[in-house]
């Protein structure tokens, strides 16, 4: 599991705690970027000559109002790992009360850049993903 903290800005949610749905994916993608950058494989992941890793599915569930100027803990884990794809689950919650505010799932697939055909997850990155898989 990968953990970080996320500051909620006024442009993320309004004073009533209502977050525009697309902002949930923006927050989760920011945590995903931190997750990749924390890996020993970060160099060349987002800008690779041979492969790309598009998101092919995403979903979000909102459980509680998310107020601007608050800080939430974000926990990211690999919830599924297949030959060419992986699913990430990112949960945003209050660090003290452990109340869950938001849950975002995304499915990523490795594809060859030139043909756009699925390829196996590179061995080194598969190991990093395996280190963060949920049990």
Give your account of this protein's structure.
The protein has 135 residues and is of the alpha+beta class. Helix content is 19%, strand content 36%. The chain has a single domain (2-130), classed as Thiol Ester Dehydrase, Chain A (Roll). Strands 1-4-5-6-3 form a 5-stranded antiparallel sheet. It has a two-stranded antiparallel sheet with strand order 2-7. A hairpin with a 6-residue loop joins strand 5 and strand 6 (100-109). The longest helix has 17 residues, at 21-37.
Any chance you could write out the topology, listing elements then pairs?
Blueprint: E1 2-7, H1 21-37, E2 51-52, E3 55-62, E4 71-81, E5 85-93, E6 100-109, E7 111-112, H2 123-130
Antiparallel strand pairs: 1-4, 2-7, 3-6, 4-5, 5-6
Descriptive terms for the model:
135 residues; alpha+beta; Thiol Ester Dehydrase, Chain A; two-stranded antiparallel ribbon
